[in-house]
Write a structure and sequence with these properties.
Layout: H1 2-15, H2 20-45, H3 48-55, H4 59-65, H5 69-89, H6 99-114, H7 117-128, H8 134-160, H9 176-187, H10 189-197, H11 201-205, H12 208-224
Helix pairs in contact: 2-3, 2-5, 2-7, 5-8, 6-8, 6-12, 7-10, 8-9, 9-12
Length: 227
């Protein structure tokens, strides 16, 4: 009787819904496999069969979690952004030097981090599908904007809160999200947009330092003048 119960439990784990402690691992494997296949095949060329094979999972398991390929792609991109943002936030804030130097150092690091070929590749795929699936691109864009704004708030709060500049109206709690968005729109967005259209990311990276130094100086001047 005892052996039969053990066999039944094993069968349930193997063929049924995984236990709660394994569900996250299954989702991670599926999304990692989806990311890999989408980057290799493109959105149109990717097949759920291949994703299931790479993930060492079954198609029913995938469809139980994601209603279709668009939902899987959106979640794969979102998961990638979440994991990268979490990774970046775990890093240490720049210490020493002026606020301008610390902001410049953080922004340079952020852009080099953003120039990941896989991350840029996923965004290009979303843009390529905008005509057929406008909701796909808009969902990815919205998620990217929300997550990047959260990251911008984290950076500005960490760098300015212990400095005199942190007392300026632009860095007040109720305005910090808008200030962070402005910071990112000035410093990060122009270079990341160029990265979407230029194949040689290494060559583009050589322009990061000069662009960031110029943009940070302009941003801080605007904050000090109350704009």
């Amino acid at each position: 009787m005892k052996k039969a119960a053990v066999r039944a439990k094993r069968a349930q784990v193997r063929f049924g819904r995984p236990p709660k402690e394994l569900a996250g691992e299954v989702d991670a494997r599926i999304l990692a496999a989806a990311r890999k296949v989408f980057l290799e095949r493109g959105f149109e060329g990717a097949r759920i069969d291949e994703i299931a094979e790479v993930a060492r999972s079954g198609k029913p398991t995938i469809y139980a979690r994601f209603r279709d390929k668009r939902a899987l792609f959106t979640e794969a991109v979102t998961r990638d952004m979440h994991s990268r943002v979490t990774e970046f936030r775990r890093g240490e804030m720049p210490a020493g030097g002026t606020v301008e130097q610390r902001l410049t150092g953080a922004a340079i690091t952020l852009l080099h981090w953003g120039f990941d070929t896989g991350r840029i590749g996923l965004m290009r795929l979303a843009i390529a599908e905008v005509r057929r699936f406008p909701d796909l691109a808009s969902s990815v864009s919205r998620q990217a904007r929300e997550l990047s704004t959260e990251l911008g708030v984290h950076l500005l709060r960490g760098i300015t809160q212990r400095d005199e500049i942190g007392s300026l109206p632009a860095f007040a709690p109720e305005r910090l999200a808008g200030t962070a968005r402005t910071f990112l729109d000035l410093v990060a967005v122009p270079m990341l947009l160029r990265a979407l259209f230029e194949l040689d990311l290494k060559a583009l990276e050589t322009e990061i330092d000069e662009h960031v130094e110029r943009s940070v100086a302009f941003f801080l001047a605007a904050c000090k003048n109350g704009t």
